[in-house]
Amino acid sequence: xxxxxxxxxxxxxxxxxxxxxxxxxxxxxxxxxxxxxxxxxxxxxxxxxxxxxxxxxxxxxxxxxxxxxxxxxxxxxxxxxxxxxxxxxxxxxxxxxxxxxxxxxxxxxxxxxxxxxxxxxxxxxxxxxxxxxxxxxxxxxxxxxxxxxxxxxxxxxxxxxxxxxxxxxxxxxxxxxxxxxxxxxxxxxxxxxxxxxxxxxxxxxxxxxxxxxxxxxxxxxxxxxxxxxxxxxxxx
Length: 236
Ligand SMILES: [Zn+2]
What we know:
By secondary structure, the chain is of the alpha/beta class. The chain has a single domain (8-233), classed as Rossmann fold (3-Layer(aba) Sandwich), CATH 3.40.50.10320. The chain is built from eight helices and seven strands, in the order E-H-E-H-E-H-E-H-H-E-E-H-H-H-E. It has helices spanning 23-31, 55-72, 92-105, 124-141, 148-152, 181-189, 192-195, 206-219; strands spanning 8-13, 35-42, 77-83, 109-113, 162-166, 173-176, 226-233. Helix 2 (55-72) links the parallel strand 2 and strand 3 (77-83). The longest helix is centred in the N-terminal third of the chain and has 18 residues, at 55-72. It is globular and about 55 Å long. The protein binds zinc ion. The site of zinc ion has 5 residues, from loops.
């Protein structure tokens, strides 16, 4: 079970390290020639319990970690929107920034957070990112009179073919990441500030934890390791 590989794919995610939700698929695709753009919405400046670490310093650390993770996934195009952690809102400004990136990069496929999950609580920034990304795809990136200032600036409307949402309660497609599970772990390990936090269980390595998760997804589809997504298709 493999997803159809596009020429260009975009990942829109809330915090540095959330791209790991689709990192196995991204690593697989970049290895086969797909161009991928990562759009990081916040700077992750509140992702610590350490009150001695100033948010601005943490943001710098996490930006560097994100650049390393992008490189390890074979991604050359990384956009950081720089919103403060925890403060994403459904605004015209945020929507416009995503429309700009979609019209610039022109992906056939976008990965993002599922905006709704009923069986568990999902971080507000994840919900906002998923919601605003969906709205940016349709109708705002697609129709020329929306964000007409971008249209007049030469950013022509663009139709995205499909959105894959990770974190869904009801995934509909499973991506076989047996070949790229180690690359997914490697990308996660770039986000050192997040897995060296003191509340982590010292007896389980972050890599083991990640592989267990991918294995659980795989069991649902008869695969050794998988990523699962809810797929929405759009007429192109
Ligand atoms: Zn997050």
